[in-house]
User: Fold this.
Amino acid sequence: MSKKNTKKIDAQAEKLLLLLSLQRQSRSQKTAAELAFMMVNETYRLVPYRQALFWTGENGIETVSGLTEMEKNSPYLLWLSDFIARHLPQQESDEAVRILHAKDVEGTDKKNWQTWCSANAALVALYDRSGHVTGALWIDREEPFAALDKVLLDELADAYGYGLQVLVQRRGKKLPSWKGKVFLLAVLVALCWPVKLSVTAPAEVVAKDPYVITIPFDGMLADILIEPNTLVKQGEVLAKIDDTALRSQVAEAEHRQTMAQAVLAKAERESITAPEKKQELAALRAEIALRQQELHYARELLAQAVITAPRDGVAVFSDKNDLRGRPVRTGDKVMMLAPPHDTELLIRVPVDAMLRIDEAAPAAFFLNTAPLKKHQAHLRTIGYQASLDADGLLTYKIRATFAEDDAARIGLTGTAKIYGARSFLAYSLFRRPLISLRRFLGV
Assistant:
């Protein structure tokens, strides 16, 4: 065998080894972007060229050999992307590799080709296993492509097309049609699933029928003698109002009564010798009666300075230090007395979250102190009109009663869940966003 033939066989064997190496390298890429970068830069080892580009139907030219960044809106890339789309094979039975020449192009394409491309080019279509074109390689150079170059590119196209399909499916850009349909059907079924509308709102355990302890007259609250949530008995002292001024009033009223009685006694003695004095006795006795009433009123006020419990119950108020030493007026609320086990649930539903409530469905209540334990309460009243809370939030007040063996201590807070009519899951999920959108659009 001659040296010329030996060199030719060695070159062909080297080409074959390079082909196998590129096929293996294409299978080792992790992403479609990495495969595209490898195709436009590493294919040069097998088939030398001036420039190579990778094209997809979705994004046009995505990768250019030798560049990490490119201007996709440049006239060259825009023209070439359109040119590739017009000259790709229409079906898998067509040749995957088309060799193009500048002399075979006419019109505007010829002018653009002569401006930006070399004399010869190879358009390599990349097919998936279903026969659809997933991308293409554009390779151009001055030297003509040999028959062996076309065969090698055809083999590479098969490996590149398969690798591209696998990587695109892996990142979820293309799902098999039957899986996509099943997924969409499952989503539609889930959105149409019947559910019961519900809303969660803050809730608090309050006294059902409390007795309000108020201030009997203007003054200053001297002291609170019990602690919050203390169980008190009827007649037990709860608080005291400063009685310094009241004691002075009682002493003054007693003094005025004593003076009036002394004047009356003197007039009665004088009337024995002077009959004209008897006309004054009626007026003096009326004045004594008035002084007695003033004294009686002053003593009643003094007695009311000590506030006692009118009945048994739990004293409900926040902190006695907030009340002690505070100026008060008649009717100001000091605390409430509530039966320890006669409680109910007060639910505050914000205006934006309110819905048509199913009054027959019990509300679920979860205490903040025991969030995993569920309490049930039956709705008793629903506020007709929203009102402001102490924190300025506009809410509807809903009251519910506990079962006898499921009551909670007064003052505990948590979250309540109330239920409305049945509807679809889609409406339940998008009801609040739709309300916000309608308010934003003003419709």
In short: The two ends are 91 Å apart (CA to CA). The first strand starts at residue 51 and ends at 56. The chain has a mean pLDDT of 83.
